[in-house]
User: Fold these one by one.
Assistant:
Number 1:
Amino acid sequence: MTDAVVVGSGPNGLAAALTLAAAGLGVTVLEASDTIGGGTRSGELTLPGLVHDHCSALHPLAVDTPFSRSFDLGGAGLTWRWAPVEYAHPLDGGRGAAVRRSVEDTAAGLGEDARAWRRVFGPLTERFDAITEDFLRPMLHVPRHPLALGRFGAYSMLPASLLARRWSTPEGRALFAGITAHAFRPFDTPASSAIGLALGVAAHRYGWPAAEGGSAAIARAMAELLAGYGAKIETGVTVRSLAEVGNADVVMLDVAPAAAADIVGDRMPARIARALRRFRHGPAAFKVEFAVEGGVPWTHADSRLAGTVHVGGSFEEIADAEREVRRGRMPENPFVLVGQQYLADPSRSAGDVHPLYAYAHVPAGWAGDATEAIERQIERFAPGFRDRILARHVTSPAAMEAYNPNYVAGDIVTGANDALQLVFRPRVALDPYTVGVDGVYLCSAATPPGAGAHGMCGYNAARSALARLAR
């Protein structure tokens, strides 16, 4: 039997392991932590009975992919749940905007910007299944749906500050700012629209669901399917070199690019090692989990129904904050992403006490404390929030990297989303999963299509390995 070793048990490592095991390989997964899951771990971080997601929380691109269609994760216990509103953006004075699954329902709440929202998101939503067939793969390929991808690509390559001119109202522009900020990039840079556009269209096509019981349910479902194939998972095993994985025919590395270069060592061609070590990481996340009695008292009504709330004020305010972060300066009023997963999945709460997920964008490796800034931003749009806090759990950028070494300096998206790395990640190559050593592949979120609990990086890398084995 052909043997494979997968180093790392994040969603991409587990997806790679499943893909190889289903093809008949004997698979062993080695995980340095005591628990599997990487960014899809969950637990009681504040008070007993409250389930918090450690990192990955809402999963718009994980619902319908080539990987999810290949394996019955639902049969293995994974259940998706949706909040009444996908995401919302509060503004001062109780104003704001919200996105629902329906493009029409969303547009109806945007007044003068209704037509512009329909024109951008309507056609893309109708064609999104075809578009994802192409953008969930490496960029260097012959497109299967060139016309649909062309329209999406034309918008994606624009600076967000330019595409935002489609909307004239503060509500419409803010709604676009919130999804754009997920890229951790200044809004005036080329292709800064890409991540936000993909997430916005995904909200209309698939929604932004939470996994019932916490994001750890994703890893548990994959582990159950792996057990059915006879695969093994070993925790508490740190791999520092290829010599430690034995004589495996295939080695999949669910690690950051520089870590892959360290593990492979002198066997890796020098030019590839240099490219992986030059891979650029982005800004960091400073995360605070709250136990909140009665939920967050948002003055904007739809924010009380949203699984995700983007907090930061107007388009211009968020653009300024993202620019400061990129320059290595901590903004006074950072962009804050708030997750209210309990609205989709009430099993995470204990009575009327709810787990609240929040992180601020901060400079890479920032050593300060953003707790006060996060609370101040939420309080601005939800007066009385502080009075409802019963407990907190703080994760700094350094603690985030300690939790998952792939999050270098607190970079939870495993790589800067600049224009070059959006197209060529982790390096310029026809097959970005190869590392120049026969049988060794990189499968982390540093590879296409990038961050998320969709497992597609691991799935694509494993298919590359299987194709080479077949040859």
Number 2:
Amino acid sequence: MKDSVEQVTGKLDLELKNNGGSLYRPRKGSRNFAILRVGKLKGLGKIGAAARHNLRERDTGNARPEDFSRNIHLAGAKTADEVLELWKERAPDKVRTNAVHALEYVVTASPEKMAAMGQTTGEEYLRDAFAWVQEKHGAENILSAVIHNDETTPHLQVMLIPIDERGKLNARGFIGGAAKLSAMQTDFVERVGKNYGLERGIERSGARHEAIKSYYGRVQAVENLSFELPERATGRLGVFGREPVAKYHERVAQNQREVLRTTTAGFVAELDDKDRELENKDRELASKDRELAAKQKQLDKTEAERRSEFQRRHTLEVACDIRFYKGSDKQERIARFQKEYLSKCAHLPEETREIVDILLEDMGGKGFWHIEQERLDREEQERAAQEEGEILAARNALAGYEARSSDGYKIANSAEEHQEIIRLLKENTTDAQYDRFRRGDLSAIDHISEDEVFRRQLLMEVELNNRTTGFEMSNELENLMSDNRGFLKETFGEDRDHGYENER
């Protein structure tokens, strides 16, 4: 239990030399100090987080929600968003990245003294403290001011923008250095604290001032701590009617749970601020990473442009030197330059390629355009030869069907052969030729065969494909296809195995 107390309140060394001062601190219960703390807020993120805490826009572990209505709004904004808007209205045009954007004052007194004052006197003390802050910084620079009565010890919290007489952010001008802070504490006690019987803290005591959120966490936790075990309840007759052991143990456990809860509650706000601070730093680092990436991209682009320009000038200079070279090995130089040039010319500007091509051709060589044209011609010839080979193979395949066309009414003996015939027809015709043929124009495939019977047998296969693919058949086309089938029936009149007389 002792360790828990020291964890919250800190350990007081009874050796005078280790306390950093000439006097022992007053024991708890007899303290009547005026308490004034001021903190620096850097960045709008911290201002917003502090405003949400002060204006109760987020959960506050050491505050009682049922007493929120007892808080007193003295001045400035009533929401965190309004606090940020007020700051932007008052802020100068240029703000240093490391500038202190706002100051936050917390004013109270020793907890036992605040309790002794009572609500009315305590509120007067905090209002006078607010007037002192206004006089020091100017009412126009107040962002928000609230008296919190929803915590164990009432206190005033004021957020403001530290604008000096020049209209600049100047937190250092107000609270910079130990001497100024000490003088501010003394001035506050002389002008405000003494009117309420409050004293200044021990000057130059060596005590370190904690962050505002951490300090209030400790104050609230200490005020709520009670490490004494509750007495076991008894009945009217003493022994008889005594509280059951199980119930007493449960009450003790509940008491200790409350102690632990209040011990940790004061640190919740500080941890939240630390989390937000880390988030802000992560965002700043991410922003810097993006800036560095953009700068690197621009540097890479500039370097690429520099290299391109160097290559362009170097190529032109070498081409001109060779053009006017008179040595016996000129042709060898031309050949070497042409080889090197052709390996790099794709990355050169078109205007540069045109100039170098003209110089090379004047020297009897071949430039990029000439070589590229030869490549395209060669690829075109290869493509034409490939297509010719494919067409020849398709025609040879169709020739096989033509060879057996006189054997019977149909040339396709299976669905697979039907599909192959349609494929071969499309490979041997253009889209326009195939479209004409599927509409009954036999002349569209004269280049495939001059045998009318074979062409009509192919047309009958195309008719079947038209129907299976949903091709729209006009009445005229239906009649034409019917006539085509009639012609084939007459030609193969003795061929009854195919049952053509039962076809549609």
